[in-house]
Amino acid sequence: MSTVLAYSSPAIGHLFPMVPLLLELKSRGHEVHLRTLPKQVHPMRDLGFHAEPVDERLLGIEARDYLTKSTKDALASSVDTFTSRARLDAPDFRSAIDDVGPDLALVDINCWGARIVAEHLGMPWATFSPFTPPIQSKGTPPFGPGLAPMSGPLGRARDAVVRRLVIGAVEKLMMPGMNRLRADVSNGQLPPVSSADAFFRTAPLMLVATSEPFEYEHADWAPRIRMIGSVAWEPPVETPPWLEELEQPAVLVTTSSEYQADERLVRTALEALAKEPYSVIATLPASRAGSAGAARASGTDAVRTVPANARIEHFVPHSLVLDRAAVAITHGGMGSTQKALAKGVPVVVVPFGRDQHEVAARVVAADAGVRLNPRKLTPGRLREAVQEARSKAGGARRVAAGYKAAGGAIAGANALEGLLPE
């Protein structure tokens, strides 16, 4: 069989959704090599992958978009982060290719330098996007602000104006640096691209971890962009005794695995639900305070008061909580939001930035939950949003059915194998 090299960006929110694809390829007899976060190397080896760490300097280039004040500035900050990382992930990926000699490469969408290397070499390769990619589609609002779809002439006019003011402004900042990067990485052999959309379409195949009805219809994406539904993986662990002892329906509260100063979502949720008939489980995987510890009453520097019906964890597999959950309160991360919906659990989405506004818009469009603006985040409003979200379980179940119908890791592996020579 063939040798596959997978290259992930330094975030578990990007690595974990890729794992089901790699496991499926391994089950078919392919030899799977992986470059990933240093702390995840041994767990990935335990799964049977040939795993090695990415360049550790990549971990030092932190996303700082949460410090910005507008969608345009946040997108520009993300461009700066990924461009800076690209200067490191390009040679790191090329070194991995030299070591492995793969027949096929699977590259995270945020690893811009590695993607340019794969394009330049002309090898069979695909890109993997654990979130809705910022690619244009007829009838879809411009990526970023989280606008609801609007049909007709008024909608087209609105989208054209927003695309020019937001995406167009970011592209003016992005494209010169992007094309310098393409020229440098390829020794001048790759032509410049004219837009961000063109850059993200350079892969022969893009696998996107979502599907209708959560995602909007994109008839003009086919055949090179394939939605495969929600693909989730979590480290195998035993169910904690405290979780088995829960007597009330759970509410899962998530924050980003890549720091964005969203701890106040946990603080507000604990206050909002302190006297409600729920068991509140909050996770802070990227908290600057470090591990929250196992004891319920310990709290963290980020969250000092923990009511009797709540518990804070640095990390706990979301699926274990969601099996007992009535509602999930999420920061709008694609992974945590889709994990909830894949189990038919409705969500309250409080988007802080990145792709989270787009995730929130899709939750509302699918009638699978409620969107709450972080500027209006108060205990009272969040408590009301949780109650409203519970009425959206039907929409969440429809989304779950759509994910299953999309085929998941099996569909993705089939598409990847289609890139290999006969």
Which keywords apply here?
six-stranded parallel sheet, Rossmann fold, seven-stranded parallel sheet, 422 residues, 13 strands, 2 domains, 13% strand, 14 helices, alpha/beta
Compose a concise summary of this entry.
With 422 residues, this protein is an alpha/beta fold. The protein has 14 helices and 13 strands. The strands form 2 sheets. A 7-stranded parallel β-sheet has the order 3-2-1-4-5-6-7, sandwiched between helices.
Can you walk me through this structure?
- This protein is of the alpha/beta class.
- The protein folds into two domains: 3-229 and 407-417, Rossmann fold (3-Layer(aba) Sandwich), CATH 3.40.50.2000; 241-404, Glycogen Phosphorylase B (Rossmann fold, 3-Layer(aba) Sandwich).
- The protein has 14 helices and 13 strands.
- The protein has helices at 12-27, 41-46, 71-100, 112-121, 152-185, 196-200, 241-244, 263-272, 318-322, 334-342, 356-365, 379-389, 393-406, 408-417, and strands at residues 3-7, 31-36, 50-53, 104-108, 125-129, 206-208, 225-227, 250-253, 279-283, 310-313, 325-330, 347-349, 369-371.
- It has a seven-stranded parallel sheet with strand order 3-2-1-4-5-6-7, with helices on both faces. It has a six-stranded parallel sheet with strand order 10-9-8-11-12-13, sandwiched between helices.
- The longest helix has 34 residues, at 152-185.
- The radius of gyration is 21 Å and the shape is globular.
- The model is unreliable at 289-301 (pLDDT under 50).
